[in-house]
C-alpha cells in the first residue's frame, strides 16, 4: 500500500508521502512517491502517487516526456495553462497507461493508481486535486481541505479533528507526522522514510523539502510524545458511571 | 458495515457493538449485533457478529436451536464443555450456513460473517475468540488482548495506545466510546445506538448491559470532550523546526 496526504492551508500547500512499495509482505522496496515540477517564479506542481508502481512510474515518465530525447522535451506539466488542465493531463495519462496495461487479460483494477496533485501557477490561486484511476478528479474545498490516498483510515481521525486552515507549516508537519505515525504503527505496507514538501502561497518555488528517516529525532519525539499525550488526553475525560 | 470490539481485562470481558446494518447507503436499518447465553453461576457467553445479516441471524438462530420446538431445545451453547468447543460450534455453524447459501451461484464472500465470542465456564478461565467466516478461529492473548470486527481501522490506534490490562470497567467503556466515536465520525455504515456488556471474571452472570443512544449525555461528553482533549494533546507536542 502507500500513505500520502496533500493539505491546503491559508499559507500554502503541504505534502507528505511514505516510501514503501510491496508485492506481498515478503517483497518490499523503497520508492519515492513524491514528484515535483517547477519553473521558478512561474509555477510549482507536486504530485503524490499511490497504487500500482508500474502505473505510477509510467504516468510520471510520460508527464516528464521521458519517451523523447532530453533536448526534445517540452515537459507538458510545465506548459499547461492552469492547474485544472494539469489535473486533466494527469487523469488522461493514467487512463492511457491503464488502458495499455489492461488488454492482456487481467483486471484493470490491478493496474489502478490514484494521485494527489497540488500547485500554483502565477496569476492563479494554489489548487489541490485528487485524481482517480478512472482519470476524473475532484478539487479540495474549504469543507474538505485535504486529500489522502492509499491506506487512509488509521490516520484520518486526527486530521479531521486537528486541522485548522491557519496552521503554520511547522504545526502541519507535526499533524502529518502524528497521522503517519498512527498509520505506520498499524499497516506494514506503509513505511519510513517519509518525504515532506512545503509550498508557500505566491512564492512560485518549492519552499522546503526533506526526507524524514526512521531515526529522525523529531519524528521519534512525535511518535513517543503522541502515545503519552494521547494517554493523558484519554485520562482527562471522565470515566463512565454505571 | 459494523463495528464490534471484544476486550479482555484482568477484571473480566467487555463487549461493545454498533447496531447499523446497510444494503447500500440508501437502505439502512437497526439490528442488535450482540447476543448472549447464560446459565447463572455456571457460564456466560457473549457473541458479537459482523458481516452478512442473513448469515449472522441464521448462525444465532441455529445456536439457539430455534429450528426446534421451544420445549425440545437443549441449546448447545449452554451445553458445550468448554469455551474452545463453543468457538468450534460457532465456526462450524457459520461454515454450514455459508455453504448452504453459496451453491446458488453467488460468491461465498457475499455471505461472509465474522464473530467475536467471549465468556467463561465455571472451573475455567474467561476466554475471548475471533471466529472467521471460514469457521476457524483465534484466541486473544496478552499480546493481543482485544478483537475488532467490521470497520476496524479508524478506531484501532486509540485502542492500541490506551488499553491497559488492569483498566476498570468504567475506564474501558470510556476507551471503547472514544474508539467508536472515531469510527462513527468516519464511516456512515457504523451507527448509533451502541450496545455495551460487561462480564466480571468468576461472576458467572452478566454484570452490566445497556444500550447507549445518540442522545446519551455521557456519550456526548466523550464525543465532544475527545475532540478538544485531542487538540490539546496535539498542541502539547513541540512543533517541527526547519
From TrEMBL, chains A, B:
Q: InterPro entries, alphabetically?
A: Ntn_hydrolases_N (IPR029055), Proteasome_sua/b (IPR001353), UCP009120_prtse (IPR016545)
Output the SUPFAM superfamilies linked to this UniProt entry.
Answer: N-terminal nucleophile aminohydrolases (Ntn hydrolases) (SSF56235)
> Matching Gene3D superfamilies, A to Z?
Glutamine Phosphoribosylpyrophosphate, subunit 1, domain 1 (3.60.20.10)
Keyword Transferase tagged: no
According to its record, what are the GO cellular component terms? proteasome core complex
Task: Provide the alphabetized UniProt keywords.
Answer: Hydrolase, Protease, Proteasome
Look up the domain of life of the source. Answer: Bacteria
Could you tell me which Pfam families the record lists for this protein?
A: Proteasome
The GO molecular function terms of this record are: peptidase activity
Tell whether NAD is among the UniProt keywords.
no
What are the recorded Gene Ontology BP terms?
proteolysis involved in protein catabolic process
Q: What name is this protein filed under?
A: Proteasome-type protease
List the source organism.
Nitratireductor indicus C115
Q: What is the lineage of its organism?
A: Bacteria, Pseudomonadati, Pseudomonadota, Alphaproteobacteria, Hyphomicrobiales
Amino acid at each position: 500500500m502507500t500513505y500520502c496526504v496533500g493539505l491546503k492551508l491559508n499559507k500554502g500547500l503541504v505534502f507528505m508521502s511514505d516510501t514503501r512499495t510491496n508485492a506481498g509482505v515478503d517483497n518490499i522496496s523503497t520508492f519515492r512517491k513524491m514528484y515535483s515540477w517547477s519553473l521558478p517564479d512561474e509555477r510549482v506542481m507536486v504530485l503524490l502517487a499511490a497504487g500500482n508502481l508500474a502505473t505510477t512510474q509510467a504516468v510520471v515518465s510520460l508527464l516528464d516526456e521521458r519517451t523523447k530525447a532530453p533536448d526534445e522535451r517540452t515537459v507538458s506539466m510545465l506548459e499547461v495553462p492552469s492547474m485544472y488542465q494539469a489535473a486533466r493531463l494527469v487523469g488522461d495519462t493514467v487512463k492511457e497507461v491503464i488502458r495499455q496495461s489492461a488488454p492482456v487479460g487481467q483486471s484493470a483494477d490491478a493496474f489502478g493508481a490514484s494521485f494527489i496533485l497540488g500547485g500554483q501557477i502565477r496569476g492563479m490561486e494554489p489548487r489541490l486535486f485528487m485524481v482517480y484511476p478512472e482519470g476524473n478528479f475532484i478539487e479540495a474545498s474549504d469543507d474538505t481541505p485535504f486529500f489522502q490516498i492509499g491506506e487512509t483510515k488509521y490516520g484520518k481521525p486526527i486530521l479531521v479533528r486537528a486541522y485548522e486552515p491557519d496552521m503554520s507549516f511547522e504545526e502541519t508537519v507535526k499533524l502529518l507526522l502524528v497521522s503517519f505515525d498512527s498509520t505506520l504503527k498499524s499497516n506494514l505496507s506503509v513505511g519510513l522514510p517519509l518525504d515532506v514538501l512545503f509550498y508557500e502561497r505566491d512564492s512560485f518555488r518549492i519552499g522546503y523539502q526533506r526526507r524524514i528517516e526512521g531515526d529522525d529525532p523529531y519524528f521519534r519525539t512525535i511518535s513517543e510524545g503522541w502515545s503519552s499525550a494521547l494517554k493523558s488526553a484519554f485520562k482527562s475525560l471522565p470515566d463512565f458511571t454505571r
